[in-house]
Amino acid sequence: MDHLNHPVKSNHAARFNFKENVTGALSNLQLRQNLRAAMDTLIEKRRAVFQDADEIEGLRNQGAAIKRRALAQLPHLLKTLEQNLVKNNVKVHWAETTDQANQTVLEIMRSHKATRLVKGKSMVSEEMHLNAFLETHDIESMETDLGEYIIQLENEPPSHIIVPAIHKNKDQIAQTFHDKIPDAPYTEDAEELTAIARQTLRHKFLKAEVGLSGVNFAVAETGTLCLVENEGNGRMCTTVPPVHIAVMGLEKVVEKVSDLPPLLRLLTGSATGQMITTYVNLISGPRKQEEKDGPREVHLIILDNGRSRILADPVLRETLLCIRCGTCLNHCPVYTRLGGHAYGFVYPGPIGKILTPQMEGLEAAGVLASASSLCNACEAVCPVKIPIPNLLRRLRNDHAQKNPKPSKSSIERIVWKGWQLMNTVPMVNTLAARAGGFMGGRLPKIGPLKEWTTIRTAPRYARQTLHDQVRSEGVEDA
Ligand code: SF4
Known about the structure:
Low-confidence stretches: none
Bound molecules: iron/sulfur cluster
Number of helices: 24
Number of strands: 10
Shape: globular
Distance between the termini: 47 Å
């Protein structure tokens, strides 16, 4: 539990007010409509590629076993990865904090007198708040993933770890392009919008001195960096500029090349409902003398940012199994109503609820662990079987122990007494069930219930209790 008390806090933590964020998100009907439409599509696409229940269960077991094996020997694998990368002429840098990682990027840029950087999608770079950092040093950092490009135009953080602009619909994106890109006409045609972005970004790729990318998996036995993407921008970032910097969290290492196929199948199927992404990039070093293209220099920055302390906790370490597929977000009844911005930190949804309190500390972000109905949907879909609800319970307990609640109010005491009676005295239980059947859908939107009833669909209880129903069907009630 030590890392929960001594977290790696971001400056952002102090400004975080979850309750305000939630109220704002829930009252934004456009946001809720956009999220619902996007989530339905993502859920359906995932279902279509994982139709065979036995196959997906087998794959999930395999994926979980691979990642558990990697975590069990993480220090050794990281050392092997470094040795093999160095053999491949990749320069490896270690960063304990995001500040150190940012500083390393800056030093590499300065050593090349570089002022322009193009970026592929990378959640670790979001964790580092790299764009804002580089801006303060007069370096242009340009997002080239279409979703990231859209939110960069609006100066917003990602709302989803795979689909950063998921909170926006086509009309809103059309307006953003028209407002923010010089001479861009207003169009809602997806192909035309993409062409506008492509035209702008092509110049950036050609002029940038450095390209930066994330890493999906790093293979220790060969020193290979694996990156998946659909737009080709990742390949442009890693091959066109003369210098490539990759950034990764230290949990991204896997042992063998043969670990990749099942993990890739799980990642792409869960994230975007694809059997495989359009591009799978395997980077094993800078351009060789006889080769015509590719960067002349490749760097890898391996970021800790609290991960090794998470690893030391025998229960919470399972958080590090995550392959950042985002499917737990798509299936979460809380995320799908709030979107990512309400969570206030880089990682939203179920994975954010377990990762952020550990990175930022319970005091700053422990409240996130309570934003769950513990419905288990996240665990049921997680491709590497992270027991998210268990981890949430553990974090809630730790948070409650650190912040003991003041003694219960008299209203709370009465409510709990009533609850106890209802569940221990059969006659009270029967009466309460009948009252519930009558009250369903009629909950008052006033008084202390207001906060709950004004933003939720009132439950419709059955008019008859289960016992009455089975009796009326002629079934003997035991
Ligand atoms: S916790 Fe599981 S489902 Fe969620 S992003 Fe990570 S791997 Fe995907």
